[in-house]
């Protein structure tokens, strides 16, 4: 077999509020299962514990490279905000890391390889475009609706990072008619209204007795009145935020993933109804809102795409 036929892998890393994860991803966007390693992070961890978690998963994953395979680079997706020029990160939910030099930490472990860093929302959008619901779509927003709400943008066929790396952070768009205070300092941000925990918290003010997104999903399925009201409220707010983004950016498609996006398919239907109210703006109401077509591997596949599909990441 010639060397040109050897599998080419990227070492992909995803750093978030609860875990750091790494895996090898090939040039078709497939994760090599045996190379996948994770380590706990968390808001209580020290800076050195977080760094150690990243070092551990990178070292373990690199050691999983099959004989004869090529390792062509390292892609890192991290919870925002990030500092693109400095290769540093300040994840909102990892408070001990502020302007932490994550790219340098990783580069020191792999001095022979190119390393690229982007926000996790941009990475999942790249993954949707590569192997998910956004294939062939040039104007795309990827969204995660989970503990928080994040996103990323592909406009005109290439990703938009912005000068600091934080473009596409849809979670902190303010939504009309809501005054929920947000951790970022804003009032009525979509994350403060429609994340999983915030939706559950609002439902509880209406008499809902459950405590988790799973409880809310079950209550919605049983037509519980407070659960239905809460899901409708969050779905409408999501639709308002998406309509604002579509009005600004002229989007073809929004692909929505994340644990809470699966609370019921009706969540996206409520969003579509809110978008449809922009009756005079056909260019905005044309936006299609669809569920993510990615598995849980999306963040890692997208981090790998920073190298495998580098032409989309200027
Ligand atoms: Zn906010």
Automatic annotation (TrEMBL):
InterPro entries: ATPase_NBD, ROK, ROK_cs
Chain segments annotated as transmembrane: none
One Pfam family linked to the record: ROK
Record-linked Gene3D superfamilies: 3.30.420.40
Family: Belongs to the ROK (NagC/XylR) family.
PANTHER family: N-ACETYLMANNOSAMINE KINASE (PTHR18964:SF169), ROK (REPRESSOR, ORF, KINASE) FAMILY (PTHR18964)
Protein name stated in the entry: ROK family protein
Organism of origin: Cryobacterium gelidum
């Amino acid at each position: 077999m010639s060397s040109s036929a050897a599998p080419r892998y990227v070492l992909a890393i995803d750093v978030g509020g609860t875990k750091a994860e790494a895996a090898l991803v090939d040039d078709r966007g497939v994760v090599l299962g045996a190379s996948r390693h994770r380590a706990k992070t968390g808001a209580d961890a020290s800076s050195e514990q977080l760094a150690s978690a990243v070092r551990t998963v990178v070292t373990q994953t690199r050691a999983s490279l099959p004989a004869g395979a090529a390792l062509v680079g390292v892609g890192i997706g991290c919870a925002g905000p990030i500092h693109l020029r400095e290769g540093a990160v300040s994840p909102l939910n990892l408070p001990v890391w502020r302007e932490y030099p994550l790219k340098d930490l990783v580069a020191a472990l792999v001095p022979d390889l190119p390393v690229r860093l982007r926000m996790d929302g941009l990475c999942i959008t790249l993954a949707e475009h590569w192997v998910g619901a956004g294939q062939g779509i040039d104007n795309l927003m990827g969204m995660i609706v989970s503990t928080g709400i994040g996103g990323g943008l592909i406009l005109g066929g290439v990703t938009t990072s912005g000068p600091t790396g934080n473009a596409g952070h849809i979670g902190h768009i303010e939504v009309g008619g809501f005054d929920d205070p947000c951790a970022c300092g804003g009032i009525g941000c979509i994350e403060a209204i429609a994340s999983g925990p915030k939706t559950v918290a609002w439902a509880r003010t209406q008499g809902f007795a459950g405590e988790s997104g799973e409880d809310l999903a079950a209550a919605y399925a049983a037509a519980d009145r407070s659960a239905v009201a809460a899901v409708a409220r969050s779905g409408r707010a999501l639709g308002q935020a998406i309509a604002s983004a579509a009005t600004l950016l002229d989007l073809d498609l929004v692909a929505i993933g994340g644990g809470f996006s699966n609370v019921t398919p009706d969540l996206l239907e409520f969003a579509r109804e809110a978008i449809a109210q922009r009756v005079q703006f056909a260019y905005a109401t044309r936006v299609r809102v669809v569920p993510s077509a990615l598995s849980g591997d999306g963040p890692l596949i997208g981090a790998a795409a920073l190298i495998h599909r580098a032409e989309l990441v200027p």
